[in-house]
Specification:
The complex is a heterodimer of chains A (302) and B (159). Chain A has 302 residues and is mainly α. Chain A has helices spanning 2-33, 43-52, 63-81, 98-118, 122-153, 158-168, 172-188, 200-203, 214-238, 247-271, 277-301. Helices cover 73% and strands 0% of the residues of chain A. Chain A has one domain. Chain B is an alpha/beta fold. Chain B has one domain: Rossmann fold, CATH 3.40.50.12280. Chain B is 31% helix and 16% strand. Chain B has six helices and seven strands; from the N terminus they run αβαβββαβαββαα. In chain B, helix 2 (26-34) links the parallel strand 1 (15-20) and strand 2. The chains are: A mainly alpha (302), B alpha/beta (159). Chain A binds chain B through residues 27, 31, 34-40, 43, 45-47, 49-50, 52-57, 59, 200-201, 204-205, 208-213, 216, and chain B through 2-3, 5-10, 12-13, 37-38, 40, 42-45, 49-51, 53-54, 56, 78, 80-82.
Chain lengths: 302, 159
């Protein structure tokens, strides 16, 4: 029990405290590609602290706007506890499996959408409708990819899927599932070809346009935490290979893999323009078919 | 303690909302110039944001016309405090060549409390960066502040 609490504490630390640092590295890389100096690595911490210290403007009497940021960060933290980061068993594995994880990740996006729809800003409404379209096409891919693993391992537990993957080596079905998750990570993290709900130059921050001070800080923090969670999901569940079963070494390996994936995501972000929502949805439909192919492979092998 | 940290972090990440209150676009182009990779304002943590709700700094360019005055007041209220107002260009500083025009209220300081002035028509990008650096406390001020003191009655009698 105390072991699980320790691992949980580690996960929370990684998700909350390390994620702004990763963002700092991303901003440095982006600055390097633009051939400029870029902000210091601590910049995201300053941004979050500054936003937390600002006035919390009441933009609408609706309670959704007040509670949405807190619920969003909380769901992301619980999702972080349901994903292994350096261990085989996630710390909250007693409470839930793959399906609970999908629920919580979806809830975070739904909460953002509801907060945007509750504010009385036309840009926020456009952002909310785009967010909904993205949600309906992106979430199925992650669900299909994780269910592919579940069919292979005959279990919905993430630890069983990881153990099956370690025992059977790289398989076609898990490879395809991993690929489709990698292609969807960009959209889940709100990075450039798919930052359609936020779209800074187009709809001025979209879903977050009415969020001031601490509210915006919590949403931002949740997005930064998502980076660590999705990168960990990808490199612990679908490509868990250098696993040594020594705790500190596994955590270190996981961090390096997360860093590599985040750098990949950043480079794709810098060199791509934003897609329109219809183009993005066409692309996601192709990925859904790819992920379904992985599911078929898993069924044939079983 | 957290509040202390927040206050310390404020000058290190200033997010800027740019408001044009009737400028000829000259100052706007120079403001955009500051954000290009050549001048790279992001190294000070300065970022241009699209919504006043996210902003810390209100960059105002242009003389304030009668039409835009209520909008500017509402814009100032939409920014969460603590906030700074920087007037960019001669027109924003005091009305410029339109100081007595029938449709112009005057400089930004007639409507809002302006914290920093960057004069020039248009101000060079270096000048804007210098102004922001003074605001951040990175660069010293060129002009020393002048304090006027009232002499006491006794001092006057002595002379």
């Amino acid at each position: 029990m105390s072991y699980a609490i320790g691992i949980g504490f580690l996960n929370i630390c990684l998700v909350l405290l390390l994620s702004p640092f990763l963002e700092g590295i991303i901003r440095k890389i982006r600055a390097f590609i633009h051939s400029r100096k870029g902000p210091p690595l601590k910049q995201p911490y300053y941004d979050l602290l500054k936003l937390l210290g600002k006035e919390n403007l009441v933009v609408s009497p609706n309670f959704l706007i007040r509670w949405a940021p807190i619920v969003c960060l909380a769901t992301i933290l619980i999702a972080g506890l349901l994903i292994p980061m350096g261990t085989i068993r996630p710390p909250l594995s007693v409470a839930g499996d793959v399906i609970v994880f999908i629920y919580f990740i979806t809830l975070a996006a739904v909460v953002i959408m509801m907060a945007a729809a509750a504010s009385e800003n036309p840009y926020a409404h456009i952002g909310a409708s785009r967010e909904m379209m993205m949600l309906l096409t992106v979430e199925p891919v992650i669900a299909i990819a994780l269910i592919t693993g579940a069919i292979n391992a005959h279990s919905f537990r993430i630890s069983d899927i990881v153990m099956w993957n370690l025992a059977h080596g790289p398989t076609v079905s898990m490879g395809i599932a991993g690929l489709s998750v990698f292609l969807i990570v960009q959209a889940q993290l709100g990075k450039l070809p798919f930052d359609i709900p936020e779209a800074d130059q187009e709809i001025m921050g979209g879903v977050f346009i009415e969020m001031s001070g601490p509210k915006y800080a919590l949403f931002k923090w949740a997005f930064l935490a998502k980076q660590v969670i999705f990168a960990s999901l990808l490199c612990q569940v679908f490509i868990p290979w250098p696993t040594t079963f020594i705790l500190w070494l596994d955590v270190l390996v996981n961090l390096v893999k997360v860093l590599i994936i985040v750098i990949f995501v950043c480079i794709i972000d810098v060199v791509n323009p934003r897609l329109r929502i219809d183009q993005a949805i066409k692309y996601f439909f192709i990925i859904i078919f790819v992920a379904l192919m992985g599911l078929v492979f898993a069924l044939v092998q079983a | 303690m957290l509040q202390k940290w927040c206050k310390k972090a404020f000058p290190k990440s200033l997010w800027v909302y740019h408001a044009n209150t009737g400028a000829c676009n000259g100052c706007d182009i120079e403001v955009i110039n500051v954000l290009t990779p050549y001048y790279d304002a992001e190294r000070f943590g300065i970022k241009l944001v699209g919504s006043p709700r996210h902003a810390d700094v209100l960059l105002v360019s242009g003389p304030v016309t009668r039409q835009v005055e209520p909008a500017l007041r509402r814009l100032f209220e939409a920014v969460p405090s603590p906030k700074l107002v920087i007037a960019i260009g001669s027109c924003a500083c005091g009305g410029g060549i339109w100081y007595d025009s029938y449709n112009v209220v005057g400089g930004v300081d007639k409507i809002l409390q302006v914290d920093f002035y960057v004069p020039g028509c248009p101000p060079r990008p270096e000048a804007i960066l210098y102004g922001v650096a003074v605001a951040l406390g990175i660069a010293p001020k060129k002009i020393a502040s002048i304090k006027l003191k009232e002499k006491s009655l006794e001092e006057c009698i002595k002379k």
